[in-house]
Amino acid sequence: RQGSELAGWAMGRWTYEGIDLNHNFADLNTALWDAEDNDLVPHQFPNHYIPIPEYYTFANATVAPETRAVIAWMQRYPFVLSANLHGGELVVTYPFDMTRTYWKARELTPTPDDGVFRWLAAVYATANLAMASGERRRCHYDDFARFGNIINGANWHTVAGSMNDFSYLHTNCFEITVELSCDKFPHASELPQEWENNRESLLLFMEQVGRG
């Protein structure tokens, strides 16, 4: 109701309970990297289908009911391809979302499947009308166009407990994040154009499910 021009980046980010759902999944990255540093992978610690830590399952853990429901859904259906949709930028990010060097705000942190993830991100970005436009201008400070409108999530800003990393490490699902628009809250009159911007990208992305 405030209008897109008056809504800041934090508007709508947290639930009523004050939880940021985008950072609410179990941090499996740290456990994996600690195990790798101690030469425990893969004989004593798995590098995929990583189990959820016990602390995360406690009743008093700060886990939103929405997050628990999504995790149960992911465990019930073995998804292999996924995308979550955000607003506020024009870029496609891919795992890892969390920097391996824990004190760094941004650091290139690729997965062992970096080539596949870069392909998936590029498929979406190159077919997105807004991203691929010759008149494409940066939304804020970062010029993502010079990188093909894709970036490793951790190389943009580190996120612990993201759905992308959790999907990849816990269920082997390849998930990307699509930042759909510079405007987090487009007006209703702009929604048809937003759909046109993303329709072909969504279809092409889904078609990649057949790739090995």
UniProtKB/TrEMBL annotation:
<dbReference type="InterPro" id="IPR050753">
    <property type="entry name" value="Peptidase_M14_domain"/>
</dbReference>
<feature type="active site" description="Proton donor/acceptor">
    <location>
        <position position="179"/>
    </location>
</feature>
<dbReference type="InterPro" id="IPR000834">
    <property type="entry name" value="Peptidase_M14"/>
</dbReference>
<keyword id="KW-0862">Zinc</keyword>
<keyword id="KW-0479">Metal-binding</keyword>
<dbReference type="GO" id="GO:0006508">
    <property type="term" value="P:proteolysis"/>
</dbReference>
<comment type="similarity">
    <text>Belongs to the peptidase M14 family.</text>
</comment>
<dbReference type="GO" id="GO:0005615">
    <property type="term" value="C:extracellular space"/>
</dbReference>
<keyword id="KW-0645">Protease</keyword>
<dbReference type="Pfam" id="PF00246">
    <property type="entry name" value="Peptidase_M14"/>
</dbReference>
<dbReference type="InterPro" id="IPR057247">
    <property type="entry name" value="CARBOXYPEPT_ZN_2"/>
</dbReference>
<protein>
    <submittedName>
        <fullName>CPXM1 carboxypeptidase</fullName>
    </submittedName>
</protein>
<feature type="domain" description="Peptidase M14">
    <location>
        <begin position="1"/>
        <end position="209"/>
    </location>
</feature>
<dbReference type="GO" id="GO:0008270">
    <property type="term" value="F:zinc ion binding"/>
</dbReference>
<keyword id="KW-0378">Hydrolase</keyword>
<keyword id="KW-0482">Metalloprotease</keyword>
<keyword id="KW-0121">Carboxypeptidase</keyword>
<dbReference type="GO" id="GO:0004181">
    <property type="term" value="F:metallocarboxypeptidase activity"/>
</dbReference>
